[in-house]
Amino acid sequence: MLKKGLTTFDLKILGILLMFADHVHQMFEPFGAPDWLDWFGRPVATIFFFVSVIGFSHTHSKKKYMTRLYVSMVLMGIMTTVLQKFVVVPQVVLINNIFRDLFVGTVMMAGIDVISAGHRQHQFGKMFLGVSIFLLPFLFSGLVFALMLAPTAIAGISMQVSLIVLPAIMLSENGLMVLLIPLLYLARNKRWLQCLLIALTALIYLVLGTSQWLMIFAIIPIWLYNGDKGKGLKYFFYGFYPGHIAILYLLAAVLH
Q1: Is-contact 115 131, C-beta < 8 A?
Q2: What residues does each domain of the chain span?
Q3: Closest of 234, 177, 253, 252 to residue 58, by C-alpha
Q4: For this UniProt entry, which residues form the secretion signal (predicted)?
């Protein structure tokens, strides 16, 4: 018997539909796409952050889950680099790589797991290791920042490589908003607290005067999540993201 509410599959479908509308705006804004299309994309990252917390919490192998995200992050970085090198659309810059955001989040969740294990076992060394893992995205950000300041050609090449392979939080598509992932993970057994954290984050963006405050509408599908996985099609979602961005970018190039 089917439960009422939304499954993980339903959340992913909703996420990619909203994301598609947002990316139509991104690619075709220079050609007259209305700004209100961008509004649809504001809850997307929050929905996928929530789904990643579910996935990381319930996967049979967290190592394989993280490896899959990292490989996707690198391939996405290679694809956008190659696309922009050989197909130039001056009005469009491809900074898209949600896989980096999600991988950075899994690194932090993995760090939280190690800290928790060290606390339970009264092992200070393991707790220190967990903190170090949690801070890796910030440490990588420091490395990227150092490369940005270095004037040599080698540093320039290293910077290009870093943009592809390093899970630095400063390179994340959503910046510090990625910190919402470990917060949602810590509150994974309290849906009301997860929704409160999302609302507080949205309030910050409202005060800052950006449209990202519309992420608050992600609370509706998240609150309706029924705990079921739903249909599979795992690799469809991994393929849809780079695929639709490449197609929309190429269409924008044709218009240009």
Answers
A1: yes
A2: 8-255
A3: 234
A4: none
